[in-house]
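User: Let's play a game. I give you a shape written as tokens, and you guess the letters that built it. Ready? Here's round one.
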């Protein structure tokens, strides 16, 4: 049924001197979208033919003709805009992939609970505070869950709080080799609640989605993280 309708439509266009496959008698290879598209020239020919064959006692009203032209213009504009947006999206995907690949071998600041020490054994992290806190506490443990150090920062205002640990345990001894587990909590109005903390983690590799999805960073100790999760690059 669809083929019959399409054939009838093509026959009608042919009588008007319009071909959806190129110039008359000169077929050319086209995509499915191109083959089914009605170009500006074809539209104007159809409009002219409509005017020539209209009922002289009931001619097409000017506003109806203007509406047809406006509709065609809008559709053509939307089609062109969609094409442009697809091209922009493709370029952005390529730029994001290149950016992600450039992170391999570097450290990035992301939300997480596994922290890697610096070469001197110290550790840096960032605790974002959306609101002021009456007290801020950070605890660092080894991979087995044994508490190594508790650091109290007291009352803090809203903003990013820099966390610095010298690599020493609560009794002053050197902590075992990392990585470490790090957690934080804030006290507000007498209630202490857990708070997310940002840690530095090495980027070991990048996964590029076969379906055109956004690239994903694979981080040591934290697993996959989207590119948008990165707050800072070391």
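Assistant: Ready! My guess for every position:
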């Amino acid at each position: 049924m669809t083929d019959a309708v399409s054939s009838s439509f093509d026959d009608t266009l042919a009588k008007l001197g319009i071909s959806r496959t190129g110039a008359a008698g000169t077929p050319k290879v086209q995509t499915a979208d191109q083959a089914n598209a009605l170009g500006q020239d074809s539209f104007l020919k159809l409009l002219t033919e409509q005017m020539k064959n209209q009922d002289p006692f009931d001619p097409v009203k000017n506003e109806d003709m203007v509406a047809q032209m406006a509709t065609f213009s809008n559709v053509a504009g939307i089609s062109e805009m969609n094409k442009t947006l697809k091209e922009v999206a493709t370029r952005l995907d390529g730029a994001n992939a290149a950016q992600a690949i450039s992170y391999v071998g570097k450290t990035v600041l992301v939300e997480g609970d596994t922290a890697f020490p610096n070469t001197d054994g110290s550790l840096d992290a960032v605790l974002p505070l959306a609101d002021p806190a009456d007290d801020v506490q950070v605890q660092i443990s080894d991979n087995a869950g044994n508490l190594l150090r508790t650091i109290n920062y007291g009352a803090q205002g809203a903003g990013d709080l820099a966390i610095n640990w010298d690599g020493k345990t609560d009794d002053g001894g050197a902590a075992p080799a990392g990585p470490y587990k790090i957690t934080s909590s804030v006290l507000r109005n007498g209630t202490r609640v857990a708070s997310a903390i940002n840690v530095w983690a090495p980027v070991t590799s990048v996964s590029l989605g076969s379906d055109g999805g956004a690239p994903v960073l694979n981080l040591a100790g934290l697993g996959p993280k989207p590119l948008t999760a990165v707050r800072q690059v070391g």
